[in-house]
Amino acid sequence: AQSVTQPDIHITVSEGASLELRCNYSYGATPYLFWYVQSPGQGLQLLLKYFSGDTLVQGIKGFEAEFKRSQSSFNLRKPSVHWSDAAEYFCAVGPSMYSGGGADGLTFGKGTHLIIQP
Amino acid sequence: NAGVTQTPKFRVLKTGQSMTLLCAQDMNHEYMYWYRQDPGMGLRLIHYSVGEGTTAKGEVPDGYNVSRLKKQNFLLGLESAAPSQTSVYFCASRIRSGRQPNNEQFFGPGTRLTVL
């Protein structure tokens, strides 16, 4: 069965500092990978996604993520965080068309709560 | 184009009451999903549907029923609500696999349900 691990429950970063949120996945085939962000009381917004090709993907709000197959990781990065980045971040994995596709839902990690210090 | 909408946004139930959550999408997506979100647990899949008249169980289906009578609507029912079902419920939809290499799910804004 697939799984997603986000090792850090909370991360505190100073405004203007760089950020890296970790995500490790377990999946039997080539997966699709996603990062979502959720502000308090809000729904989920897609930050970026990886399907194939270039392993470094760019997303919205200045975020990027790197897919490393050998490490089963898909870490999210941002060079300089803003106070508005404070939110909950979720990594998710889903079936790809290259692995047979399928209607399976996404498997989410438990989330990382990002706190921004002034 | 409203995307994915959910009704209601908030609801408080007493133990044993029943209710139905409605999810609607206007993107002509074949697949639809119901998730629940609990603190420290991320999102977990309850049920999903690949088309009208077809549903399937996800990771945490117990205590819930679903129906997909129309392509654009996916209903989640609680026949006898329990406090353990206090959660935020998210609906999502996506296109059928194979139509294009993109299985991004589009999420609704969520329904916050409290069972007393």
What characterizes the major β-sheet of chain A?
6 strands, mixed
Q: What portion of the residues of chain B fall into strands of 2 or more residues?
A: over 45%
Order of helices and strands of chain B: EEEEEEEEEEE
What is the CA-based Rg of chain A, rounded?
14 Å
Structural class of chain B: mainly beta
Number of helices of chain A: 0
Radius of gyration of chain B: 14 Å
Q: What's the helical proportion of residues of chain B?
A: under 10%
Helix/strand order of chain A, N-terminal first: EEEEEEEEEEEE
> Are there runs of chain A of 5+ residues with pLDDT below 50, and where?
none
How many distinct beta strands of chain B? Answer: 11
Integer average pLDDT of chain B: 92
End-to-end Cα distance of chain A: 41 Å
Shape of chain B: globular
Q: Could you say which overall geometry of chain A the principal axes of the C-alpha atoms support?
A: globular
What tags apply to this protein structure?
heterodimer; A: about 120 residues; mainly beta; six-stranded mixed β-sheet; four-stranded antiparallel β-sheet; B: about 120 residues; seven-stranded mixed β-sheet; 11 strands; about 0% helix
Q: Could you give a quick summary of the protein structure above?
A:
With 118 residues, chain A is mostly beta strands. In chain A, 0% of the residues lie in helices and 50% in strands.
Can you walk through the features of this model?
- The complex is a heterodimer of chains A (118) and B (116).
- By secondary structure, chain A is mainly beta.
- Helices cover 0% and strands 50% of the residues of chain A.
- Chain A has strands spanning 3-5, 10-14, 19-21, 24-26, 31-38, 45-50, 56-58, 64-68, 73-78, 87-95, 107-108, 112-117.
- In chain A, strands 2, 5, 6, 10, 11 and 12 form a 6-stranded mixed β-sheet that branches. Chain A has a 4-stranded antiparallel β-sheet with strand order 3-9-8-7, with no helix packed on it.
- In chain A, β8 (64-68) and β9 form a beta hairpin.
- Chain B has 116 residues and is mainly beta.
- Chain B is 0% helix and 53% strand.
- Chain B has strands at residues 4-7, 10-13, 19-25, 31-38, 42-51, 54-57, 65-67, 73-78, 87-94, 106-107, 111-115.
- In chain B, strands 2, 4, 5, 6, 9, 10 and 11 form a 7-stranded mixed β-sheet that branches. Chain B has a 4-stranded antiparallel β-sheet with strand order 1-3-8-7, with no helix packed on it.
- The model of chain B has no long low-confidence stretch (mean pLDDT 92).
- Chain A binds chain B through residues 4, 9, 32, 34, 36, 42-44, 46, 49, 51-52, 90, 92, 94-98, 101-111, and chain B through 31, 33, 35, 40-45, 48, 50, 56, 58, 90, 92, 96-98, 101-105, 107-110.
